[in-house]
Every structure is written in C-alpha cells, then in structure tokens.
Amino acid sequence: MPQSTPSFPFKLLYWTYRHVFPLVHRELKNWRSKAENIPDAELKKQAIASMTTKQFHCEGGSIYAVAGMKHRHQLVPLIVAFQTISDYLDNLCDRSTSLDPHDFRQLHQSMLDAVNPDAPLQDYYKYRQEKEDGGYLSELVTTCQQQIRQFPHYELVREPIMRFVSLYRDLQVHKHVDPKERESRLQNWWNTYRKDYPDLRWYEFAAATGSTLGVFMLFNVACESAANAERVEQVVQAYFPWVCGLHILLDYLIDQGEDEVGGDLNFCAYYENSSDTIERLQYFREQARKQCDSFPDRAFHIMIVEGLLGLYLSDQKVRKQQRVATVSRGILKRSRWSTILFYLNSRLYRFVTN
To answer: Which of 210, 217, 213 is nearest to 166 (CA)?
Structure first.
C-alpha cells in the first residue's frame, strides 16, 4: 500500500478511485440505511436528501485520506460522518420549519461535540418541532468521537478545529434567520474579525467560514507521525481564509441561479460584475498557492487548489448561467494544465456516475 503523499495528478486520482472512494461509498451506504429508519418523516426526508444531492461533498473531503493512506480506515469514516452531519443540518436549516437562531445554534452544537472526544451528547433538537430521529444524529457524533480518539496527535489540532467549527456554526445561525436580518447580522459578525483579515470583504470572510476543508486537513495532521505546532500553524494560515474561501466561493458561484429562485443568500452575488468575480477568485487561488509553498507536501495542496477549480467549474450548472459561464471561462484561461485535467476528470466522472 502506498504511504507517501501523491505529488502528481494522475497518482492522486488513481489512489482516490482505487483506495478511498470505495470506503466513502461503503460509509454512505451505511448512513443511508440508518437514515431510512428515522421515525420523523421530515427529518428522514432531509437526511436522505442530503446524501442523495451532496454525495460529492463526502467524496471531495475524502481526498484528505489520500494524504494519510496509512490512516484511511480512520480518516474516511470520520470525514464522511462529519460531512454528513454538516450536509444534514444544512438541509434542515435551508428547508427549515423554523427561523429560530437558538434552534440553528443547538443543532450545530452536534458538530462541536463531534470534534470534542470528551463531550457528552445533548438534545440537539431541543428547540425544534421535529425530534424523533431514532438516534441518527447522536450516532454520527459518537462515530466522529470514536475515530478521533485513535489519532495520536489530536491535542495538537483540537483548538484550531474547534475554532473552525465554531465559526462554521456562527455562519449557519446568521445566514438562516429571517431574511430581513441575515445581512446585518453577518456584517456585525464580520466587524468582530475584520481587523484580522484586512484583505477580505465581509461576504468573503463569511464564505471562508463555511468550508470544512480546514477541519479535514487538520484531521490528517493529527495522524502524522511528525506532527508539531509549526505544521498546524502552517495549515491554519493557508486554509483559512484562502483554501476554505476559494472552496465556498466556487460553491456559491455555481449556485447563484438556484439561490436567486429560492430566495437564499448567495455571497458571490455581492461581487460588482463578472470581472470583479474573476479577479477576486483568482486572488484567493494565488494566495492559497502562495501559502502552501512552504509545505513539505506542497504539491498535494496545490492539486487541492486546482482541483477545486476543476470540480466546480465543470459542473453542468455553469453552462446554464451566462454570467457564471463568463466567470468560468475567465478563470480557466488563466489555468495550469493540472486544472484542465481535473476539470476533464470531473466532467467524465459525473457522466459515468449519473
């Protein structure tokens, strides 16, 4: 079994399809069977829908298990369980029967508990009408905790992971409340952090907090034999806000049409025009690459950055939206050959699996 982190796209793709995706699909099949037994109809509907429409989130997150192949049997179940919590709660909040910020905060307490192996389980549906999930959410939480306990250096990464997840929870609360309140809440929240991120706009900071990639990379660091505080700090600086921001801005970019129809808040809609969007996404891309330059496994993280572009810009949603297609062409014109390879691979994978 290969142990070193892949440094070339073809090797990354081979290891992903050969050694990691089968584990991801096995885990998703397990959680889907549990979701099908949820007693409450609404909770069951959203749990199943989150895995049906967002499977690629778990597949994408599992790339970090390729960087830690020796520990893939711990990393993949952890990444899939944690991402499944995120996607399930996102569905519950997006399609919510509630606009209560206390409800959203309590639901997302499950994510904080999932990354704290010492945390007791709580009533995550305390402020919600629908409650009976047959232990589904609690089992997701305990699965994460069980895997984390096996990591030799988790204490090195616990604090930044908790910080990332706390920011994620704050975002989910602010962006799912009454539409009349959400923008002012997000801007007030940003004012707390803007001095630390002077190069960002408020909606770019908010987008960066919505990514789980920094958490997944820190999971991987917790498994590394030579993990130390310097390595953790390097990852934190590179991933937040740059890699995480690029990730979620691309996600919002391709969802603009859907969000406009659904009345959902979309951070890319705040850019002035296509040129502004291209320049800012390109800025995030280059900053992410620059921050990863000092990594011993630099090539892997550069592939993550370019792979994000290939994954999202190849989505069929892009071609259905003129403005988004314009942005996509503008970015791809500035792309390396590896981006085009990931772009073509993503299109082929969707064709084969759909």
So the answer is: 210
d(CA 13, CA 18): 8
| Distances in whole angstroms, Cα of residue 324 to Cα of each of 105, 127, 321, 328 | 32, 38, 5, 6
Could you write out the DSSP letters of every residue in 82-130? HHHHHHHHHHHHHT-S---HHHHHHHHHHHHHHT-TTPPP--TTTT-S-
Calpha distance 346→192 (Å, rounded): 38
HSE-CB at 176 with a 13 A cutoff on CA atoms is: 26
- What is the C-alpha separation between 277 and 291, in angstroms, rounded? 21
Find out whether 149 and 92 touch, Cβ atoms under 8 Å: no
Token readout for 92 is: 């519950």
pLDDT of residue 4: 67
What is the tally of helices (H) and strands (E) in the chain?
Answer: 20, 0
Distance CA 82, CA 191 (A): 29
Q: What's the rounded Cα separation, in Å, for the pair 307 and 305?
A: 5
pLDDT, one tens digit per residue, over 113-162 is 999 999 999 999 999 999 999 999 999 999 999 999 999 999 999 999 99
Amino acid (1-letter code) at residue 59? E
Give yes or no for residue 171 having a pLDDT over 80.
yes
Instruction: Output the pLDDT for position 1.
Output: 35
- Give which of 270, 272, 268 is closest to 251, Cα–Cα: 268
Torsion over CA of 237, 242, 247 and 249, rounded to 10 degrees?
A: 140
Q: How confident is the model at residue 2 (pLDDT cuts 50, 70, 90)?
A: very low
User: Quick one: average pLDDT of 178-191?
Assistant: 94
Identify the CA nearest to 84 among candidates 116, 59, 119: 59
